[in-house]
Amino acid sequence: MDKKLRIGIIGCGGIAHAHMRAYLEIPEVEIVGGADIVPGKARKFLDEFGLTDAKAFDCATDLLKCELDAVSVCTYNSQHAVCAVEALEAGCHVLLEKPMCLNMKEAAEIYAAEKKSGKILTIGFQPRYGANFQQVKEIISSGTLGDVYYVQTGGGRRRGIPGGTFIEKETAGVGALADIGCYALDFAMNSIGYPKPLTVSAVAYDHFGKNPKYYGDAERFSVDDFSAAFVRLEGGITLDFRMSWAMHMDTTGDFLFLGKDAGLKVKQPNLELWGGAWDGAVGQITLYHDMCGKPTSTIIPTGNDVKSNLFYCKVKAFTDAVINGGTAPIPTSQILYNQAIIDGIIRSVACGHEVETDLAFLDK
Ligand SMILES: NC(=O)c1ccc[n+]([C@@H]2O[C@H](COP(=O)([O-])OP(=O)(O)OC[C@H]3O[C@@H](n4cnc5c(N)ncnc54)[C@H](O)[C@@H]3O)[C@@H](O)[C@H]2O)c1
């Protein structure tokens, strides 16, 4: 590529810093500018990195007029869809932070804009680049477990409600479920090849976030801090999901994959604080199988590269795909299923019974 990849960053808050650090390590990239709706925030952000010549805007629309090749969308969740669609319509490739969006109406809009634009849209699940996450997928894909019929995913935190824009409906839209829950869903679903989710029955609570005894900003709290769901997947597979920002328990359980020939247990690295979100770290991985007709368990050696910069990997995979005319490293074809489960959980919680996932737009 002769000229550098012209990059913009939409939303210049916390996570935009991790995107910027990664972009600055890639020689083929030029940071053209940033946009944030808080006046002055984009300028301050760019200056922090010594990018005094990069352009700062208070509105993404103005940034998108700068003939960009690609953008990172790092806004809070409720603005993901509107910014991603606008960027695709402006002819940009998009690295969109997780969760993809808030509901299936938004998901369908992003999907339609992606298809119409012919541009790459990828979603920011950096734990995918962790060697241990990849090893779990490899073990399952190898057929060692036989047909997988039950998966348990979740984990969560004993006390770990974040602050800022994460705790209000208007900005985050959803709480623990979409914040760290989407990672737990991605780990499980990606490991088994992202089968289509069919139905969801779920519950959600806010007992800690709304209680000043446990959370200082209880008045502002308007999302979930715990949710659990029973999801039927195509192929007769059951997905059992639990996720918490706060609870009176050390964990909601390990990751379990039950197959007809063997089972795999992936423990969390730290009880009371599920860390897979950031660093792809896992605890002990154990294969449960029969040897000479006897139930046996084998500990699988884990790699020690969990501290490698997964953010760099995710940003580099995106820029490589753009430069080489490749496809999305983490495509909507998968993440729409992740989003359909989150959307199903929200709808099931609201109506109090099982719901069908809303993926009909994919057949049109
Ligand atoms: N991949 C990860 O490890 C990871 C970690 C943390 C957060 N995230 C995700 O990143 C996103 C942002 O999180 P954060 O911690 O940076 O939040 P934040 O609140 O610190 O930053 C979001 C920024 O977006 C700006 N913004 C909102 N709407 C905008 C719009 N329409 N145009 C331009 N700017 C807009 C806000 O003013 C704010 O500065 C969330 O979706 C979150 O789930 C991902």
Radius of gyration based on Cα positions = 20 Å
How many strands? Answer: 15
Q: Give unreliable regions as ranges.
A: none
CATH architecture of the largest domain: 2-Layer Sandwich
Largest sheet: 9 strands, mixed
- Mean pLDDT across every amino acid position: 95
Bound molecules: nicotinamide-adenine-dinucleotide
Morphology: globular
The number of helical runs is 11
Task: Please state roughly what percent of the residues sit in beta strands, choosing from under 5%, 5-15%, 15-25%, 25-35%, 35-45% or over 45%.
Answer: 15-25%
Helix content: 25-40%
What oligomeric arrangement do these chains adopt? Answer: single chain
The CATH topology of the largest domain is given as Dihydrodipicolinate Reductase, domain 2
The strand line-up of the biggest sheet is: 14-13-12-11-7-10-9-8-15
The string of secondary-structure elements, in order, is EHEHEHEHEHEHEHHEEEEEHEEHHE
Total number of domains: 2
Structural classification: alpha/beta
By CATH reckoning, the class of the largest domain would read: Alpha Beta
CATH homologous group name of the largest domain: Dihydrodipicolinate Reductase, domain 2
Beginning-to-end CA distance, first to last residue: 37 Å
